[in-house]
Amino acid sequence: MIEIILLGTGSPLVDPLRAGPSTLVRAGGRSFLFDCGRGVLMRAAAVGAPANQLTALLLTHLHSDHITDLNDVITSRWVTTFVPTPLSILGPIGTQSVVNAILSSLGPDIGYRLAHHDDLSWDPAPVVEEVTDGVVFDDGTVRIIAGPTDHRPVDPSIGYRLEHDGHAVVIAGDTVPCAGLDALCAGADALVHTVIRADQVAAIPLPRLTDILDYHSSVEQAAQTATRGGVGTLVLTHYVPPMVPGAEDEWRALAAEHFAGPIELGADLHRIVVGEGS
Ligand SMILES: [Zn+2]
Ligand SMILES: [Zn+2]
């Protein structure tokens, strides 16, 4: 079985109820964190997934809302491990330079802690692998495939397909419908897709908001992608504008016009399991 937990269902818009974009996927005793938005480790703590237990952090793209707390993941991993176990980060081209800049900003803190703790003798530098497509992780239990998505002008952006024990889950990230995402989705048990309400965003006369219509999938487009891929369950997250409690059925109905399978969405920590019993 593969467990999906929507750690943060928010967006760049600060919301008192929703952490920033982040999804935890657990399979075969491994824990994978996809993106690390605002407040991610608070939510991860709620489901027993501390930074020092992560198998890897995978980034879909380098938009700020998806990496807001990357510094916290790096530091928390470092200060709660007792032998050198560098965090593994997979992400698009450009990830290494972002990580280098964060490490630079943490320079004073790293110096303080190294000077203060005799048993801490290594630095927090993660092992970064910049990926584009193909198999990017395979330990014999879990296999992860990356594929290009289309979030231009944010470029590159990538989606991931995690496979375990005959089941597959796709993490789309932010993207418009595209061939790269379709290829990842083919026959997957679940698709976790970030969405915006195009009808609501288009009605707000603010260019800063209506600009986002051209590089995100609407709820309806995410549903169409799921249908094209023959996906089992559609999981919606990253709600823009923030989905108010009680509006779940309204969002679900928009997707249901284009996708006949189960549609999951909700509050932070919403949990979906695929392949139960296997
Ligand atoms: Zn984005
Ligand atoms: Zn986003």
Summarize the structure.
The protein is of the alpha/beta class and 278 residues long.
Task: Describe this structure as you would to a colleague.
The chain is an alpha/beta fold. The chain has one domain: Metallo-beta-lactamase, Chain A (4-Layer Sandwich). The chain has ten helices and 14 strands. It has helices at 40-46, 64-67, 70-79, 95-105, 107-116, 179-185, 198-202, 207-210, 219-228, 248-256; strands spanning 2-8, 22-27, 30-34, 56-58, 88-91, 127-130, 134-138, 143-148, 158-164, 167-173, 190-196, 233-240, 263-264, 270-274. The strands form two sheets. It has a seven-stranded mixed β-sheet. A seven-stranded mixed β-sheet has the order 7-8-9-10-11-12-13. Helix 9 (219-228) crosses helix 10 (248-256). The longest helix is centred in the middle third of the chain and has 11 residues, at 95-105. The chain is globular. It starts with a strand and ends with a strand. The protein binds zinc ion (ZN) (2 copies). One zinc ion is lined by residues 11, 21, 63, 65-66, 174, 194, 238. One zinc ion binds next to helix 2.
Series of H and E elements: EEEHEHHEHHEEEEEHEHHHEHEE
**Which architecture name does CATH use?**
4-Layer Sandwich
- Major sheet: size, sense and barrel closure? 7 strands, mixed
Number-wise, the strands total 14
Number of helices: 10
State the secondary-structure class: alpha/beta
Measured distance between first and last alpha carbons: 5 Å
Which fold name corresponds to the CATH topology?
Metallo-beta-lactamase, Chain A
Strand content: 25-35%
Round the Cα radius of gyration to an integer and report it. 18 Å
Helix content: 25-40%
